[in-house]
């Protein structure tokens, strides 16, 4: 009987501990972090593979040759974009962890306001700094989204021309890389509808796969923007809660101080009365 009671108390204690732990999880920050990681992973992974597919298409069908090492051509720019993607993936992985930690500390500060953990001015400054930094990152991701829409538009034009040639017979259409700014004006790198390379490019899986990869990268950038907006709402709400909690904390400190002073005055008067009586 005693063993059953002890087991019941142990289970009850574990259940209460689990409920307390679950109650301290910042779910809004957790959702924003998952959305941020999903968006960044989609953008970086699909963007990297789409850039590799673009290199293959330029070399196989447009016969664009890689220039010298010290020259700044389209292939060098693609390599730079790949390194930028590596940096973005690493930076926002760390930033998501930092925001989750800030959410845990803010939640703990609000829930344990009257316990041992006290809200400090440094904590409020950190929250304000995260709000400013997240706003800047949101603007940056808006720019990344706009920039990613450019290759989607370019590949959509190519895909449209490929579709139109199968419908309209005798159509004389050409894809000239100069109109996209990929090569200089002096270079003539184009593929026309009547050529064999054009049909091979339209029928290849590389064009279709690269087009859809760029679309996925655009969707990932949009998801990152939504995650930044979500983070801004969470951080602003936490800042407001912390600011209100700080005021309540000051009020309670002043109230307890006044009560202690009244208690000391009352004790002093009682002692004086007792001394006068004796």
Automatic annotation (TrEMBL):
Membrane topology: Multi-pass membrane protein
Transmembrane segments: 21-43, 83-105, 126-147, 211-241
GO biological process terms held by the UniProt record: neuron projection development
Matches recorded under Pfam families: Myelin_PLP (PF01275)
Signal peptide region: none
Oligomeric and partner information: Interacts with OPRM1. Interacts with palmitoyltransferase ZDHHC17/HIP14; the interaction leads to palmitoylation of GPM6A.
Protein name per UniProt: Neuronal membrane glycoprotein M6-a
Source organism of this protein record: Anguilla anguilla
Organism taxonomic ancestry: Eukaryota, Metazoa, Chordata, Craniata, Vertebrata
